[in-house]
């Protein structure tokens, strides 16, 4: 009863705040996969929100319209993940992951890049940091989803003191050197740092489980985020792409549309080292056992970009992959819920 009440309460909150046009957009995308009218799909979206704890985005992203009930039951969803995060992760230490400056201080040896806190540095220190670098990235320490990030050409900076004031005013007070990605990752798409999202859970017996491993790829922009035009595909346990990638609109990409590099079967370089890295990272903050790690692959080694205490959920899209089974059984086997 408590679970049903929680689901119903979640659905009521969603309905009371939903963007009608955005919901219809998801319904139309899903209706295109079947002969069902949009109104029927919208009703099914509402049913799935209560029965399976899906968001409307989840329904569209994982093609729930074409799945049978037994298949729908296998999917992890964002609300389920959120509830687990709330239950397992200690809210008092969230700041380590919410604030990129705190994260840099805690995980500095695994970042693989130099950084500067503008709030504690004067113009001379900023000038020294910029010296000898072609580009830097400025970030809002509290930004999410790729927002609050600017790539800056050092040659175009005429007044460092003015830049510092601009950064303080905009909130982009974390300055980082630009990571150079592994040549094999750059071959896939050179315009952004193509990263991995590796979701881990450290259980009470001190075993670190990899729940999901995802390859995120940029597509025409400098950020690989799904919400910023990027695409993703799922990886197997050896770091090989299981199937074509898809973007937020559900479009499939067997090969990268800009570079022409095949995505299906693509092998992530240094993947055994990636698994070693996330195992170390997962032990660094024991109060936060359930984390999604963004990992970059440099020519020398994998490094961490950031950690997400309320990680999004990534799974294979059935219409793109042919896979009609989600990762909920894998999560349950590791997390015992």
Description:
The protein has three domains: 2-73, no CATH class; 87-99 and 182-335, ATP-grasp fold, B domain (D-amino Acid Aminotransferase, Chain A, domain 1, 2-Layer Sandwich); 114-177, Dna Ligase, domain 1 (2-Layer Sandwich). Helix 1 packs across helix 3 (38-51). It is of the alpha+beta class and 337 residues long. The protein has helices at residues 2-17, 20-31, 38-51, 56-61, 69-72, 78-88, 95-98, 100-107, 123-130, 160-170, 183-188, 271-282, 318-321, 328-335; strands at 115-117, 135-139, 149-153, 174-177, 196-202, 208-217, 231-234, 245-247, 252-253, 290-297, 302-308. The chain is globular. The mean pLDDT is 93. A hairpin with a 5-residue loop joins strand 5 (196-202) and strand 6. Helices cover 37% and strands 17% of the residues. The longest helix has 16 residues, at 2-17. It contains 14 helices and eleven strands. The strands form two sheets. A seven-stranded antiparallel β-sheet has the order 9-8-7-6-5-10-11.
């Amino acid at each position: 009863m408590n679970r049903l009440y929680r689901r119903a309460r979640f659905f009521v909150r969603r309905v009371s705040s939903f963007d009608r046009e955005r919901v219809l957009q998801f319904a139309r995308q899903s209706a295109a996969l079947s002969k069902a009218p949009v109104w029927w799909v919208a009703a099914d979206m509402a049913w799935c929100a209560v029965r399976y704890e899906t968001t409307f985005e989840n329904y569209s992203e994982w093609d729930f319209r074409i799945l049978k009930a037994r298949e729908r039951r296998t999917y992890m969803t964002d609300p389920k993940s959120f509830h687990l995060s709330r239950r397992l992760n200690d809210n008092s230490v969230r700041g380590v992951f919410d604030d990129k400056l705190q994260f840099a201080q805690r995980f500095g040896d695994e970042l693989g890049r130099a950084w500067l806190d503008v709030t504690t540095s004067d113009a001379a220190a900023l000038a020294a940091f910029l010296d000898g670098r072609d580009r830097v990235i400025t970030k809002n320490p509290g930004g999410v989803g790729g927002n609050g990030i600017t790539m800056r050409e050092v040659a175009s900076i005429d007044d460092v003191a003015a830049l510092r004031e601009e950064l303080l005013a905009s909130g982009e007070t974390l300055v980082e050197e630009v990571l150079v990605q592994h040549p094999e990752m750059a071959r896939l798409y050179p315009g952004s740092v193509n990263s991995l999202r590796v979701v881990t859970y450290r259980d009470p017996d001190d075993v670190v489980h990899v729940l999901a491993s995802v390859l995120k790829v940029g597509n025409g922009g400098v950020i690989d985020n799904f919400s910023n035009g990027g695409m993703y595909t799922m990886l197997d346990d050896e770091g090989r792409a299981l199937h074509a990638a898809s973007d937020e609109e559900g479009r499939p990409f067997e090969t990268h549309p800009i570079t022409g590099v095949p995505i299906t079967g693509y092998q992530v370089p240094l993947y055994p080292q990636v698994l070693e890295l996330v195992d170390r990272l997962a032990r660094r903050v024991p109060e936060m056992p359930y984390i999604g790690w963004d990992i970059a692959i440099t020519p020398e080694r994998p490094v961490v970009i950031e950690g997400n205490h309320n990680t999004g959920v990534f799974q294979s899209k059935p219409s793109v992959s042919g896979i009609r089974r989600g990762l909920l059984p894998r999560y349950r086997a590791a997390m015992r819920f």
